[in-house]
Amino acid sequence: MLLEREAELAQVAEALRAGAAGDSSLMLLTGPMGIGRTALLQQLPMLAEGEEIRVLRANAAPVEQDFALGVVRQLFDSLLTGAPEELHEWRLGAEDDLYRTVFSDDAPLLDDGGTLTMPEEALYGLRSALAAVSAERPLLILVDDLQWVDAPSLRWLAFLVKRLHGLRAVVVCALRDGYRRPGDPLLREVVDAARRELRPAPLSLGATKEVVHEQFGVPGDEEFARACHETSAGNPLFLKSVLADLAMSGVRPIAEQVETVRSLRPALLRERLAGSLRVQPRPARDLAAAIAVLGGQAEPDLLAKLAGLDPIGFLATLRVLHEVGLLAAEQEPRFLHRVVQDAVESSMTVAERERLHDAAAALLYHNGRPAELVAAQLMAVTSSGHPWAVEVLRAAADTALRRGAPRIAARYLRRALLDGSLAGEGRARLLIDLATAERGFDPAACERHISQAIPLLTTPRLRAAAALRISPTIVGLGPPSAIDLLHQVAEDLGPATSLEGTARDVALRLEARLRHAGHEDPAELAAAVERLSALGEEPALITAAERELTAVLLNSAVLTARWPAAEVSRLANRILEREPATSEQVHTPLPLVVIGLVAADSVRGISSWLAMEQQTRRQGGTVADALVNVQQAMVLSARGRVSQAREFAERAVRLAEVHWQEAGVVSTLALTRVALDLHDPVLIERILDGPGRRRSSSLALTATLQFAKAAQDAGNGRWTSALETLLACGRQLEASGWRNPVLFAWRPWAAELHRRVGDPGAAGALAEEELLRAREWGAPVALGRALRVKARLTGGDQGVRLLRESVDVLRASADELELARTLLLLGRKLRPGGEAAAVLQEAGGLAAACGVPWLVERIRAAAGSGASAAPPEAALTRTERTVASLVGRGLTNQEVAAELGVSSRAIEKHLTSSYRKLGVSGRRELIELLPRMDS
């Protein structure tokens, strides 16, 4: 299929008409590799059909350049095929000497020096033969790849094109760009004799769509065709190579495959490009290699120096590479396609590549280029003798870390470690830097490199500071090897009371890590609480080390509920007031403060702090990303915003799949809380089938999985089994000293199960015990929940009074879900009428805002018609309906915001309002409801 070549065909047809009338001409068909010169040349004989025009063809090739008169023989062989009898007689008769001179295999056409020896008579004889044939029928002479024509044939062509007068002939020669070498006078003679130059243009987008249709048999999506057009730059060879590879891979021409199109690098095309490059002169090959090494964005002066070219030679060589078809633009050192880069690299030997990258590194370094640019070149070299290499790699790693790319930083530092000159503390510092980069994505490697660095350090303070680079496990048990290492360096350093300055801070941070390592030991927890009390009512929080230690000690007070929630909240907020929000905090015990505030039901003021922390981090799938998502999920759950919490919790669990040791337990805790609030059996089953059972034996995870198992049993009506699981969980928590009624609220649930299985005495005892613990702890959510449990067991007016008290207490809580549950129970207890309807309406609004469908349904059922429990769909504003409609089309919040010209925050507010009004838990249920809204 030849597309968009009508203009060129028309010009050749016009030349043929003029040639038939005696006005012969030479036409030159040019263009870069792959533009379709050969395809167009092969189409030209169709112009001769029915016109009594004889066609002579010849195709030159690099491997036949030593075959003297090979092209001339091809032309005359095609001439003799079907030629009149008198032409055969010429070949065998009167011109027999000419035939032997030109076409005999042993014809001496070149002397020992390579000079042509073919006599003028032979040249004239060949022309005379053409003249005799053209007198009968006009000739169309086609020569493809003029640049590869053998020297004797080129000599005859140069002779012929100057003597076309008197012939009825049109000669069309195809010449690839980049081969008009001024040192080849014969080629220049042929080119200069051309009357007209035909230069096919790149294919348009419309033509690209037709090629896509031909390749796949169906029209491609607009985005797919556009990507094909942009990737190939309209070059037919590039386009067809890409499409052929896509078709062989089973790819369909749809919009979802756009990135596949842009990333494809066809192997056959790479080999053709490499072959084309190998026959170029040395300067062109050197400049192409320099572009491949430095990249298309490198400055011209650097490319010229690396390729060894002066400014004039650089511009001339750049033009050659563009004419050959390797560059996107004539004066821009950027390859046309990524496969060109592959072709250039494949044409270099390993030694050449190393030499060029090493030279490029030195060139960039001495020209003051950024460290990461220099480091990128050093990364491609096995070893480098530059004395500045290690420092450049360290500086590049530091830059990568600051922009949130720890994996890239680690690659630079691993490469720096290959330098054999490093030893002692210099090597230790490099190992510590590497461990710092790795702790966000490979904690095991981090610990290993810290262990290697510590023996190389000369002072206890340096060794202890190095050990602190290992991130603590916030929830769950840390690796025993890491804990042993912390004990070892802490013993060498000594207690904080005997130290000053930096050494004291290091000792305090070590104490924090070691005390946190014992958070499942009741004796260690008790000692930590005593240590916290010893700090006084206003512990010093001036340094980060003091804040870290206080956070760990405070966590012990939270787990044991040995301090009241109000005191915990006050001290936790003091820590946050003095602690700037940064993503680096996930590598310290400071996230424990968030858990303390959740347990104290004091999360209203923490959202802005978490938002600042989130802004300081870069998305990259690290431990920091997982833990920040966990924190957001925990705070949203503590506020009762379950549907929003689920998004963060599920994202944290996905990230924790590769960071289980650091984030697996805590992310499972967050997701389980969501699953229990939603009464979602599918999500609970997923948690129970997850990696938790196989990958950790921590108390927090064990208790969490027991809660999930009890929920599964209860959901299936196995009340006794669920109760046994909960009681076993409670005994284990109590034995470990974990008695906080908010973090692990097993008693309220167990009391309800006791009631269901017909044991009100045991239920009442647990309810009383929970109420006592809740009053001691003092968090509104714990006390309000305990009052509701007791009210359910009490009944009558006393039950109503307890529920009213629960409502009053929960209005001071951040947890709107717990308030909604109590309001539902109160609405059921009250006489039908005004107050009950108002209570249920408030409960319905809260439940819808929290995104808990099961509770919304129960409230609707309690309210009868449901009109007061949840507003109808018609209550949506016009903007809310528009946003819902766009969401239904599959757009993300950011895409909806761009469509409407507002902020993403505004879209979130509209969606939250819609969820509350419609009584749905989130985006999925909203989309399911849309057809009903439109009907």
Automatic annotation (TrEMBL):
Listed transmembrane segments:
none
Instruction: Supply the CDD domains for this chain.
Output: LuxR_C_like
Protein keywords: ATP-binding, Nucleotide-binding
Pfam families on file: AAA_16, GerE
Coiled coil regions in record: none
SMART domains this protein is in?
HTH_LUXR (SM00421)
Q: Domain HTH luxR-type, which positions?
A: 869-934
Q: Does the keyword Metal-binding apply?
A: no
InterPro entries referenced in this protein's UniProt entry, alphabetically: AAA_16, Tscrpt_reg_LuxR_C
- Protein name, UniProt field: AAA family ATPase
| Organism of this sequence | Streptomyces niphimycinicus
Q: What is the lineage of its organism?
A: Bacteria, Bacillati, Actinomycetota, Actinomycetes, Kitasatosporales
